[in-house]
Design brief:
heterodimer, A: mainly alpha, MetI-like fold, two-stranded antiparallel ribbon, 2 strands, flat, B: alpha+beta, D-Maltodextrin-Binding Protein, domain 2, 2 domains, six-stranded mixed sheet, three-stranded antiparallel sheet, 16 helices, 15 strands
């Protein structure tokens, strides 16, 4: 009797989860089918889910609208560097704030947290000015004038994102979970702080690093406003800045926009699929929902 | 240790202050040296342009190439974006002291920047561009703010009346006689509406349910009203003429003669989908429709629009302007001059179908296609735009609310405009 009740619950739960999953994935499915329709079908008064005519060439046509190889390369490069460097910086900072006792540690941590409390819109213009006036960069002189600084450069796209209070906070919370005896044992064995970080803590950090990598990669890949204001050249555009090209004055070319969106979503989907196990583990261990 | 740290922080702060100060001085020095005009010095012109039409972007790219070949010392850094993104970029650029040299954007955006003292008056450059007499007067008027010219019109985009001749015939109306007055329009709209089981299946005309500013504004002007006293930066929309225009729209809408749609969603326009008989719209709508379905070429008619106390046609104007901050004004002026020349103006007509807004090309343009092009020229000559004031963008939000409260709500037009005025005054005081 008990088994029957459990089975019924199981099936009900499965159905509910299936419906919820379908609701979550339906925009992606609709985007995929729209990407395969001719424009006349997208604009037709009668809405259909499946295309009457499957136009696979939309994907090729979408990639012909602009220098998409360059946009994708730029986005890959910026995301890869941002994620790699930020993982190193954030995990080291988090480790120091969690495991290394020093005077003013808590004050420093709370100062770091301030970064999470200030909206990016407030810091956008000062950051822009700092990067544009970066001395000796992009044609600037020692006083930061005469050139464009870090505008239209990979550094300009990467630098504002490699630090970040959230990553430091996430790593600190993760490293706080380890017992003090681990540090003591390392110290007794003659292990320095740096060696302990690299040889003991980093191998144990896969969940938090995977979580941070997914969050950083998603943030960097999807970033819109910053690349919009820091780049002026077509050759420096990222995919998010290139996508609005399908929104014309005469209307949006939905089928091509959806095709380009699907293509540009694939790397993030793959990343999430591969890092899913660690990502969920990281959420469980740090209590962060992202 | 603490002392050393404090000293270090103080030194860094002092150094930053000195560097910032020097940086400003250096910028000013740069400015003065360049305006001195060194003929052979390499200059980089920064161009921010509206990029919502592919052929328009292609045109500007070719014009820039041509300019560079004529001016080997000039380099261009060009960027194109849609209206919202371009405004974001410009806001940051102006706020950080790195404004572009040349801007190509809508007249409303241009005028609001002129009101914020960000643009260079162009009157003194006009003699190099053929003089004011070479251009259609209305376009120069639209580009003028408080007596100074800030915008050189490149693409006028009037919203003419497009109508379906086949639907006219079906309703027993003469397809060669589109409505000319408010009364005729109201009568035609009812006759052209097709209903099945009490439901509208084809509207008599596109009358927006929401976001109806572009539909309403010309009616206010046709009725002798005004949205703003632009010379004095004052709101004047709370008038009997404007109230009558708004009530006219609401009464028409409530007769059930149109399909529900959002005036700003270009993908949902009933007329484009064959679900409406008339629409005030730009020529691009006609081009898109006839490209998708060439058989529509013979089925769509053109008209300037309606007339009451005066003629008025809602008209977009995309224009070139020069920023006050530009360090390369001479080169920027030369570029605007090139784009405004007769040759380039005609080239834009041939390549993109852009109406040539120069007097010298008017007859040639009309002779190309008298029936349509005369309508277009008349529309440009009667063009009106959104309020050309510092608060134009703020007004649009309040006007949308006022429109909806009358058209789909139960508020009277008079009451709604009084509320609009009150809210606007409050917002402006803030």
């Amino acid at each position: 009797m008990k088994t029957v009740k459990k089975d019924a619950n199981y099936y009900i739960l499965t159905i509910i989860m299936f419906i919820l999953s379908l609701a979550m994935i339906s925009p992606l499915i609709l985007a995929f089918f729209t990407s395969l329709k001719p424009l006349s079908e997208v604009q037709a008064p009668v809405v259909t889910i499946l295309p009457h005519q499957w136009v696979w060439s939309n994907y090729i046509d979408a990639m012909k609208e602009g220098n998409w190889a360059r946009y994708i390369y730029n986005t890959f490069f910026v995301t890869a560097v941002t994620v790699t460097v930020s993982l190193i910086i954030n995990s080291m900072a988090g480790y120091a704030l969690a495991r290394v006792p020093f005077k003013g540690r808590n004050t420093l941590f709370f100062t770091t947290l301030l970064g999470m409390m200030i909206p990016p819109q407030i810091t956008m213009i000062p950051t822009f000015i700092m990067l544009k006036k970066m001395p000796l960069m992009g044609g600037n002189d020692i006083f930061g004038s005469g050139g464009n600084g870090l505008m239209n450069s990979y550094l300009g796209l990467i630098i504002p994102y490699i630090a970040g209070s959230f990553g430091v906070f996430l790593c600190r919370q993760f490293y706080l979970n380890f017992p003090d005896s681990l540090d003591e044992a390392a110290k007794i064995d003659g292990c320095s702080r740096l060696r302990a970080y690299f040889q003991i803590y980093i191998p144990l950090s896969t969940p938090v690093l995977a979580t941070l990598a997914v969050l950083k990669a998603t943030g960097s890949w999807s970033e819109y406003i910053w690349p919009l204001i820091i780049t002026n050249k077509d050759s420096m555009k990222t995919i998010q800045i290139a996508l609005p090209a399908f929104k014309q004055e005469t209307g949006t070319i939905w089928n091509l926009l959806m095709a380009a969106t699907i293509i540009t979503s694939i790397p993030l989907l793959l990343l999430f699929i591969f890092a899913q196990r660690y990502f969920i583990e990281g959420i469980v261990t740090t209590g962060i929902k992202g | 240790m603490k002392k050393i740290l404090s000293m270090l922080v103080a030194m860094v702060m002092l150094a930053s202050l000195v560097m910032t100060g020097c940086s400003k001085a250096a910028d000013q020095k740069d400015n003065s040296s360049q305006t001195g005009g060194q003929q052979n010095k390499k200059v980089t012109l920064v161009f921010y342009g509206l990029g919502q039409l592919k052929n328009e972007m292609d045109y500007f790219k070719s014009a820039i190439q041509q300019f560079k070949s004529q001016n080997p010392n000039a380099e261009f850094e060009e960027t194109y974006a849609n209206d919202a993104d371009l405004n974001t970029k410009m806001n940051v650029a102006f706020a950080s002291g790195s404004a572009p040299d040349i801007i190509y954007t809508s007249i409303s955006s241009t005028i609001s920047r002129a009101a914020n003292n960000q643009l260079e008056p162009l009157d003194s450059y006009m003699s190099q561009w053929g003089g004011k007499d070479a251009y259609l007067e209305r376009n120069l008027q639209l580009g003028t703010y408080k007596g100074k010219l800030y915008a050189m019109g490149v693409r006028a985009d009037p919203r003419i009346l497009l109508y379906r001749k086949d639907f006219f015939k079906e309703a027993g109306l003469d397809p060669e006689k589109p409505p000319k007055t408010w009364e005729e329009f109201a009568d035609y709209v009812v006759k052209l509406t097709k209903k099945e089981n009490g439901q509208v299946v084809r509207g008599g005309a596109d009358i927006p349910t929401t976001n109806g500013s572009l539909f309403l504004a010309p009616l206010i002007f046709q009725n002798g009203g005004k949205i703003a006293d632009e010379d004095n930066d004052k709101l004047t929309v709370n008038s009997p003429e404007a109230a009558e225009a708004l009530q006219y729209v609401a009464d028409l809408y409530k007769k059930g003669v149109t399909l529900v749609y959002d005036g700003e969603k270009l993908d949902e326009l009933p007329f484009v989908k064959g679900k409406s008989a008339m629409r005030f719209t730009n020529l691009n709508t006609y081009v898109t429709m006839t490209t998708n379905d060439p058989s529509l070429k013979d089925k769509i008619g053109f008209s300037v629009g309606l007339e009451r106390k005066s003629k008025a046609v809602q008209s977009g104007l995309i224009c070139l302007s020069m920023t006050k901050e530009s360090k390369n004004k001479k080169e920027a002026s030369n570029f605007i001059g090139l784009v405004s020349s007769d040759n380039e103006t005609w080239k834009r007509y041939e390549k993109m179908g852009v109406i040539p807004i120069k007097k010298s090309l008017q007859d040639k343009f009309i002779s190309e296609n008298p029936k349509v092009n005369q309508v277009l020229i008349d529309s440009v000559k009667n063009g009106i735009t959104r309020p050309r004031t510092s608060w134009g963008a703020v007004y649009m939000n309040y006007e949308k609310a006022a429109y909806e409260s009358v058209v789909i709500g139960n508020t009277s037009a008079k009451e709604s405009l009084a509320t609009l005025e009150k809210n606007m005054n409050k917002a402006l005081q803030k």
